[in-house]
Amino acid sequence: MSGRHLGVSWPLDSGRKPIRIVKSDKLSLGNLMIDYSALRAVAMVVQTGSFEKAARALSVTPSAISQRVKHLEERLGAVLIERGTPCTATEKGDWLCRHIEQVGMLERELLAELPGLSGSENSAQRVTLHIATNADSLGTWFLNAISHFSTASDYLFNIAVDDQDHTAEWLQRGRVVAAVTSLPKPVQGCRLTPLGTLRYRATASPDFITRYFPDGVTRDAIAKAPALTFNQKDRLQDRWVRSVLGTDMTCPTHWLPSTQAFVDASLSGMGWGMNPVQLVGEHLKAGRLVELIPDTALDIPLFWQVNRLAADRLAGLTQTVLTTARRELAPLPQK
């Protein structure tokens, strides 16, 4: 559906006058008026990154898009889009985008039950699901889950990558409808499903071990050996050092914001890093990589959180994510 609804008026003398059907792009509930053409303009600008691309996607002029967005911003008294290259949503803009996302899910559901509504005027646009996950999940198991789900669904995906300790913040700010997170408590307004444990091992090449750890992993040695760090939010290396040495250490580091680059840099002898077992298992068996200290895995529990308003309509996605996670992740520890 394009966002139009049927406004029905019942005259008092309904026995003599016909019911009047009025098409509108605005939903009126008492004094509340939601202009869905303006909301869709905001969402499309955010999705495409520019007013011009949004105009092409909605088959209107850039001026029309600009006017709709400006009018809505003036009415709400808030900036919804940060103008730039690309254009991005403000916090309030994100909430409106998630609302449109949920409306799109409802439209899909309605058209599935009432296919007679389908047509050039009422055809539903494909819904883009905004989801946050950590890079290592995306690089090991999560892509398998959404790929499998997409083969039987017409949903599109917009995947945001952040540290597993911070993806829940995307839910809290309304920027995504679901997230893979290490947060074991449900975000307000979300449903939580335990997934499993992503297991990491501290690995490096044999030459690197010989060069920096001839006498084993000591405090002096770890303080000189270059580590690999994803970004400033990445604390996995610090947590592993604390768990095996019992203290916090400051290590020299290479900054590499790529899951596969971590593995490649470890293989090349550039540094040591915390790598998911799914990506380094064969390298460890073949001797191309070595654990800094054998059998000292670092386990990161993961959970799936989804907005309650969308949870029922995304039950199939949740089931696919859960099935894939249980197949590819280690079990969560029993309490």
Automatic annotation (TrEMBL):
Domain HTH lysR-type stretches: 34-90
The reply to whether Magnesium figures as a keyword in the UniProt entry is: no
InterPro entries, per database record = ArgP, LTTR, LysR_HTH_N, LysR_subst-bd, WH-like_DNA-bd_sf, WH_DNA-bd_sf
Keywords in alphabetical order: DNA-binding, Transcription, Transcription regulation
Q: Which PROSITE patterns match?
A: HTH_LYSR
GO MF annotation: an example:
DNA-binding transcription factor activity
Q: Does the keyword Transcription regulation apply?
A: yes
Name the Pfam families for this protein: HTH_1, LysR_substrate
The record's comment on protein family reads: Belongs to the LysR transcriptional regulatory family.
Descriptive protein name: Transcriptional regulator, ArgP family
The species is: Brucella intermedia LMG 3301
